[in-house]
Amino acid sequence: MARWETITGELREAIIRGEIAPGTTLPRETDLEERYGASRTTVRRAVEELEAEGLVEKVRRRGTVVRRSPARTRLTRSRRVYRDDIGYFFDRTAQGWRALETPTITRVPAPADVARLLGVEPGGDVTARSRIMGEPDTGEATQVAVSYLSPDAVAELPVLAEPDTGPGGIYDRMEEAGHSPLEWEEAISARMPSPEEARLLALAPGVPVLRIVRTTRTPGGRVLEVNATVLSAERFEIGYAIDRDTSATP
Amino acid sequence: MARWETITGELREAIIRGEIAPGTTLPRETDLEERYGASRTTVRRAVEELEAEGLVEKVRRRGTVVRRSPARTRLTRSRRVYRDDIGYFFDRTAQGWRALETPTITRVPAPADVARLLGVEPGGDVTARSRIMGEPDTGEATQVAVSYLSPDAVAELPVLAEPDTGPGGIYDRMEEAGHSPLEWEEAISARMPSPEEARLLALAPGVPVLRIVRTTRTPGGRVLEVNATVLSAERFEIGYAIDRDTSATP
DNA sequence: CAGTGGTCTAGACCACAAC
DNA sequence: TTGTGGTCTAGACCACTGA
Q: Where in the numbering of this chain does the HTH gntR-type domain appear (chains A, B) (predicted)?
């Protein structure tokens, strides 16, 4: 085992056992050098590992602070989609967030999974409607939502590529155009953020993002839109209840 | 901007644009030193960043390889729990995996969120049933599932702390003891793996894990068990369909 | 404004695995 | 076998920010 791994291990154990409490700092780097008889590089390598695991955060002039995990906000995914006068919504708990600005319309290379769903070649440009959602009061960003539009859908309904799509948004426009009732499904995964996502969402190092991909289909099964929402995995979890299939219980 | 950030940025862009194709290698470290006129430390710092983002993987004697993301397997969460002769199951697609060994019973400090659900003090020891699930053929581990048992439940039903809990497993034992029908809910989040999880699941650096936490309650709302399943976020996604609440549509 | 972490250099030897 | 990345040293100067 490398020297730095030994140091990482001892520090990690002390943190998990609570000997170094959340909010307090690890010994400063020069102290760790002395304690372990290692060079600064080695000590820093050891602490970098803890940072990548999301256990500590380095703060200039203060030291390496043991992170306290914030309580996660639960998003309760509706297993039914609801709508009100404004439009469709997919989450009973999302009412507190608002788009912080008008959607940005760009043409971007579709991510591999989105390209597959939209049926365009990987790396091909598609129209994207990007929104940053957050707390209206503080301006704090909590989610980055990008809606990738099928080229066919944009050709049929150019309004989908306008910043303002009118009452009810893109889904109402699609349904008015004869694609009613739309069908949706969602998939949840996670990955490390891009540097831009980390900046927008103010993510600490070592914090992954949850990615919710919602696919919109016509009743015939044609994909009109893929919405990818990215949010801090440290601050959010996605919950749902499970119904018992009583008919099958012996 | 630090010199290493510049290097990271250029390499990242080349990777995303496909100029350095998945499966091929970045220039070797000595070449990067020369190209950027930087020391080895600086070059390595730049590449470490790409590794932490999950974009590249370092392979000895071969070089720094651009990773190709494996296709994700979709777990379709049932919104209903089913059961057959074996017991309850929560996923229509999980049939291919089997426990690779008998459950390990240990007493471990409950993770903070689990402690909260079980109503024990943070850091307090609870009984844990740990299972490694995987491909029966290859022995490859795909999921680590730990079932944390409420102290009350173990006191009432000591069999829950036995490796073999009999036909139907712990849920059948609980229901036989009068807690029928059990109720479940799930929450999905993500985090970076512990070193042990990374080893067990053979995770590359920069790959987070999905964590599915399922809570088992009595009809009266008492929490009997919390099951935490951890799986590679790169190899799995969790999907579900969304039903339309037709009654509410105008 | 001083002390913390951040960046960078130049050089050395090691360990592993693909060739 | 040997070239790749892995580890480690000793030392220097910088930049930010909280005491």
A: 1-69
In the block, residue with structure tokens 């008008």: A102
Is residue B163 classed as helix, strand or coil in its secondary structure?
coil
Using an 8 Å CB-CB cutoff, list chain A residues near B230: none
Contact A83 B248 (CB under 8 A): yes
B247-to-A79, A82, A184 alpha-carbon distances in Å: 14, 9, 17
Determine the distance in angstroms separating the CA of A181 from the nearest CA of chain B, rounded to an integer: 9
pTM of the model: 0.88
Positions 22-51 in A, CB within 7 angstroms of strand D: 37-42, 45
| DSSP character string of A87-112 | -EEEETTGGG-EESSPPEEEEEEPPH
Cβ–Cβ < 8 Å for B4, B33: no
Q: Give the Cα separation of A229 and A144 in Å (integer).
A: 6
Residue A56: its chain B contacts at CB < 8 A? none
| pLDDT digits 0-9 by tens, B141-175 | 999 999 999 999 999 999 999 999 988 889 999 99
Q: CA A148 to CA A169: how far, in whole Å? A: 14
User: Would you say domain B3-66 falls under CATH 1.10.290.10?
Assistant: no
Burial of B181 (0-12, 13-18, 19+ CB in 10 A): exposed
Q: Which residue has the tokens 């440009």?
A: A125
Question: Tell me: domain A73-239, CATH 3.40.50.150, correct?
Answer: no
Contact state of A190 with B206 under an 8 Å Cβ cutoff: no
CATH 3.40.1410.10 residue ranges for chain A:
73-239
Helix axes B29-36, B40-52, angle to 10 degrees: 110
The ranges of chain B annotated as CATH 1.10.10.10 are: 3-66
pLDDT of residue A98: 73
| 8 Å CB contact of B240 and A72 | no
Q: Which residue of B has its CA nearest to A112?
A: B69
**Dist CA B235 CA B210 (whole Å):** 10
